[in-house]
Amino acid sequence: MQGLDDRTRDLIQRRVLKRVKDIPSLPQFVVETLNKLDDPLSSAVDVGNKLSKDEGLVVRVLRLANSAYYGLSRRVTGVSEAISYLGFKTVKSIVLAASVYKFMDSTFSGYSLDRGQLWTHSQSVAASCRYLSEKLKICDPEEAYVGGLMHDIGKIVLNDYVRFGYSIILRLVEEDNVPFCEAERQVLGFDHAQVGGLVMEQWNLPEAYVYITTYHHTPWELPENAKEFQNVVDIVHVGNAICIMLGVGIGADGMQYNVSTDSLERLGLGDNVENIMGEFVDLLSEMEDDTKDLKAH
């Protein structure tokens, strides 16, 4: 099939790399808050003081902390109190979720995603990954949550280029049955998963998230020197696949997308996908109002 010429593809690759470098870093106070959360000597008050530098972020943290998903026995009104109830790992997930919201709450026409759909999909995958990790007890639930949240972050960079090459990508998908992610690579030289890994590096997030975003579509390609992350990569791959099957925030890249049987076997899920899908439906129904609540602020 006739695609983009080499010169155009090379130009796109150089511009994509520049766009990644130009993505704003997470705000300094967010980085400082995350550092406080990682510091074993920090108290809830220390973290709360850092977090309180952004009123909007505090509101989102409190709204998420009081959401039905977290199931607290009583309503909390202070950020330090919320931190004490939820624990540092959970608060770290909430802070990252609230911080990346602004990047995802847009229209991404290259992927046929209306405004808010990328955020809805990412939140749904994140919650599903936390649920799976708690159920299977094979990796840190909060690491799985953040990995699920970040898995499609590369779309914020690649969107314009996918839109430029959309007709060619779509022909590969529809006529040759090529998965959308592979079609991205063939046409543009990058896919959104690879670009997402570069964004994680740009933001100096832990290497687990670099591997999760890079390999969430291709868990079988995870390098040997990163096998310690195989479980969480498999969980994000499966969580994403099931959310796509359920039609949650599904875009153009949901076409020709299959779940890896190897990932299912490694996770011990085997033929249990239909039951897991049913459990996901209940979970995602519970969190739907909470997602709307966050978007309202």
Explain what the structure shows.
This protein starts with 5 loop residues before the first helix and ends with a helix. The C terminus is likely disordered. It has 16 helices and no strands. It has one domain: Hypothetical protein af1432, CATH 1.10.3210.10. With 297 residues, the chain is mostly helical.
Give me a quick take on this structure:
By secondary structure, the protein is mainly alpha-helical. The chain is 66% helix and 0% strand.
Highlighted features:
297 residues, mainly alpha, Hypothetical protein af1432, disordered C terminus
Describe how the helices and strands are arranged.
Layout: H1 6-22, H2 28-38, H3 44-51, H4 55-65, H5 79-86, H6 88-104, H7 117-136, H8 141-150, H9 155-164, H10 166-176, H11 180-188, H12 192-202, H13 207-215, H14 230-245, H15 261-266, H16 273-295
Helix pairs in contact: 1-12, 2-3, 2-6, 3-5, 4-6, 5-6, 6-8, 7-8, 7-14, 7-16, 8-13, 8-14, 10-11, 12-13, 13-14
